[in-house]
Design brief:
Helix content: 25-40%
Shape: globular
Distance between the termini: 24 Å
Number of helices: 6
Strand order of the largest sheet: 2-3-4-1-5-7-6
Structural class: alpha/beta
Largest sheet: 7 strands, mixed
Length: about 200
């Protein structure tokens, strides 16, 4: 069976280490941690891919080279059917979760996330797996997110603080286990184990 893992983010060096690029950062980490081959340019679409195996299953890691609200446009080159979509894992930043927390879900709305809206629009279904990665500071166990559109944009396009990067480093190790569990044991079991 073949799985697809895409990390949402913005193209360009100025966005590389921003909170909004957490999905792309994690997929870059997975390529190294899973010992997948070097990234190669996909000539058909503006994206990089790395193909490897987890257990006996093939996995394609995908990094869009687009702006966030166009990330999904590359997916029809990979996702050819509803069956393919059911084996797509989209990793992205989540303002409603504190740093160090993550949540698996399936077939949910975009929640206003422009990258996710682009994915849903491009593959014409909501029936795919999501891994939401928290990016907000924590206060009493709850995400302390900024108020107002301008403050939110400034925050998500800002970079993580040093102590937050340490938390994210530990989170990446856990996310590697989540991805391996999804591919080897199935999504339901992974949800039960990690949610």
């Amino acid at each position: 069976m073949k799985y697809f893992v895409i990390g949402l983010g913005n193209k360009g060096g100025e966005y590389k280490d921003t909170r909004h690029n957490s999905g792309a950062q994690i997929v870059e980490y997975l390529q190294l941690a899973l010992d997948f081959p070097d990234w190669r340019e996909n000539k058909k679409v503006k994206a990089k891919e790395s193909n490897g195996k987890i257990g006996k299953h093939s996995v394609t890691l995908i990094l869009p080279e687009q702006f966030m609200n166009n990330n999904g446009k590359i997916l029809p080159a990979f996702i050819k059917s509803k069956n393919d979509a059911s084996r797509l894992l989209v990793i992205y930043d989540e303002l409603d979760l504190p740093i160090g927390k993550m949540k698996l879900s399936f077939a949910r709305s975009s929640g206003g996330h422009k990258g996710l809206e682009s994915v849903i629009r491009s593959i014409r279904t909501k029936d795919f797996m999501r891994l939401r990665v928290g990016i907000s500071p924590e206060s009493k166990g709850v995400a302390k997110k900024p108020k107002g559109e301008e403050a939110v944009v400034k925050f998500i396009l800002g970079k993580f603080k040093e102590d937050e990067l340490e938390i994210l480093k530990k989170e990446k190790l856990k996310i590697k286990k989540v991805v391996e569990s999804i591919v080897e044991n199935g999504f339901e079991r992974a949800m039960g184990e990690f949610n």
